[in-house]
Amino acid sequence: PFYIFERELCGPRAQLMEDFEVPPYFRDDLYDLTEYTRAFYPCYRHVIIGVERTGSNMHVDPSCTSAWNTLLSGVKRWALFPPGDSDEYRARIGAPPKGGGTGDVPPPANWWLDFLPQLQASGADKELGLVECVQHPGETIYVPYGWWHCVLNNGFTTSVTQNLVAPESLPNVWDQLEADWPAFAPEFALLIKQHRPDIKLPVAAEDAAMREEAAQRAGRDSAPR
Question: Model-level pTM?
Fold first, then answer.
């Protein structure tokens, strides 16, 4: 069965955007600062449709984002684990190894049917900090940056989800952002400083913004006139 993520919410689908508002807690997304920052992570909003036994395997959301998910119909079952990225940790929570695995990706239901009972029987679910919950229509779940999670749809479900980088998450995400995207991160820091002076940057981000500002100034000074 298919699990549909519709991201093209324009044209005949534009009316879907009239049926919901972003919850107040999640409206401040730093990737929305400019067209340039938005283009860094453009596919951030989806309408999701799933049927019985579909869902998502254990994963962390991309590009240093957190996410919210509001369920419109049906029932979703969630499992979440705190951040961790060692090979041992990934194996213990049933996440794919770094670089992805080999062979076919198992159906999402396999984790719930095969892996979860083993965690519960051994007590590792509590040791590893498993958070498990059931989501009903009208309820919103927030997944913080770096948290592993997987989802199983119980019956036909529809939901809306968006990813974001909230100002409050900058101290947590900055090191990974700078390590994974060394060209974008200093530009991002400078744009935050210019467009959102109310936000206190982490020390490393402040340093990156200053280096980027100096580089841009040097580029302007050396340009032919």
Answer: 0.92
DSSP letter (8 states) at residue 199: S
pLDDT digit string, tens, across residues 153-182: 999 999 999 999 999 999 999 999 999 999
Separation between Cα atoms, residue 194 and residue 188, nearest integer Å: 10
Grade residue 101 by pLDDT with cuts at 50, 70 and 90: low
Residue showing tokens 């936000």: 199
Compute the distance between CA of residue 54 and CA of residue 73 in angstroms, rounded to an integer. Answer: 15
Nearest alpha-carbon partner for 154 in 16, 53, 7: 53
CA distances from 216 to 115, 159, 205, 210, 213 (A): 51, 43, 16, 10, 5
Give the span between the Cα atoms of 129 and 45, in whole angstroms.
Answer: 28
CA atoms within 13 A on the CB side of 186: 12
Do residues 141 and 135 touch, judged by C-beta distance below 8 A? yes
